[in-house]
Amino acid sequence: MSDHRFSSVPTEEEPGCCHLSRKVKVCLCVLLCVLLCVLVAVAVVVGVLMWPRATPPRAWNGTGSTPHFSEIVLGRCFTYTQLLRPELGHADCGQIGKAFTNAFLSKDPCHSSEQDYQLLLKLTSQTIPCHSSVFWSKSTQLAHLYTRVRQDMFTLEDTLIGYIADGLNWCGDAGSYEMNYQSCPHWRKDCINNPVSVFWDTVSKRFAENACGEVQVVLNGSVSNTFDKNSASAYLNPHWPRRSVLNPVSSMNNTFGRVEIHNLHPGKVSVLKAWVMHDIGGVYSYHTCSSPIIDDLKFILSKRNISFTCEDDYRPIKFLQCVKSPEDSSCRK
Ligand SMILES: *[C@@H]1O[C@H](CO)[C@@H](O)[C@H](O)[C@H]1NC(C)=O
Ligand SMILES: *[C@@H]1O[C@H](CO)[C@@H](O)[C@H](O)[C@H]1NC(C)=O
Ligand SMILES: *[C@@H]1O[C@H](CO)[C@@H](O)[C@H](O)[C@H]1NC(C)=O
Ligand SMILES: CC(=O)N[C@H]1CO[C@H](CO)[C@@H](O)[C@@H]1O
């Protein structure tokens, strides 16, 4: 009771402090400790919450990482290795997922390198049978329709690594362990050595290097800007736009010309067969097998001792187009 009196009488504070009972002192001490602990805890929590905001990731001009990137990668890996190609059932999807994110997390997204992806490449190595590689340029949909029907044929996106990454976007930040979901470097506006462009160049190169026997390429004869005026540089200039899955029309155009044809092995690849396809009902065919751009392609390959053939509107692929437009006159003969 006396304790209570003391604490509630402020005028007696000074002398009172020395007469405090042991019990009160212990109580005060405990109270102080608790208070201190609470303060420290609050400081830590606030610190943790504020930290990312203290160093926000850099802002870029390109779209940010695909939401749920890691989950998508893992899910696709299991889908591919367990359901689509069970012969790859031994692949370790957990490790593949980790190797993928480790390739770019906590790194400057403008200094991505082939080296970053080496472990991922190793974990996803896959043997593609000879005579079954299909390249494409500006014909993504049709080429994939073709390999979907011909399950023995493979575009890059039909291999494990291509299947996992197709259509995704990703980047990290040098100052954080997190992915950057806000923005990522745009290949033209920011930097060309960004994680996505470097990835596609790296895996395209391996895909081309591993190709053997007769290989095919599906080309789009119905686009003007792809192959005309800039055609030679499109095939020869190493700084030409990289593949970007987010913008297939504008920038996915030249991985074949810039990376893939230069990495075909003359000893392994006997012939490259080009199919120049035209849109059904398209107003104008910009390119055919007799276009100068095809000559350029032929020339590049001949210098590398790879023979080349070209066919306009290759029938097996034309049939696929005709499924969608059965009434078109070109489909009725
Ligand atoms: C050619 O490219 C255009 C524009 O990207 C696309 O709409 C069309 O489907 C493509 N045609 C073929 C045959 O791939
Ligand atoms: C590839 O896309 C870029 C961006 O739109 C375009 O400027 C360029 O002309 C295209 N290249 C070819 C060869 O079509
Ligand atoms: C192509 O073959 C010719 C003769 O068969 C040879 O002299 C030349 O070195 C080869 N070129 C390449 C790039 O392999
Ligand atoms: C080319 C381009 O659009 N660059 C822009 C990228 O984003 C920064 C700011 O985030 C702008 O200042 C640039 O103009």
UniProtKB/TrEMBL annotation:
Coiled coil: none annotated. GO terms for molecular function: NAD+ nucleosidase activity, cyclic ADP-ribose generating; phosphorus-oxygen lyase activity; transferase activity. This is ADP-ribosyl cyclase/cyclic ADP-ribose hydrolase 1. It is a single-pass type II membrane protein. The chain crosses the membrane at residues 28-51. CDD domains: Rib_hydrolase. It catalyses: NAD(+) + H2O = ADP-D-ribose + nicotinamide + H(+). It is found in: Membrane. Homodimer. Pfam families: Rib_hydrolayse. Its EC number is 2.4.99.20, 3.2.2.6. One of its GO terms (biological process) is positive regulation of B cell proliferation. GO terms for cellular component: plasma membrane. Keywords: Disulfide bond, Glycoprotein, Hydrolase, Membrane, NAD, NADP, Signal-anchor, Transferase, Transmembrane, Transmembrane helix. Belongs to the ADP-ribosyl cyclase family.
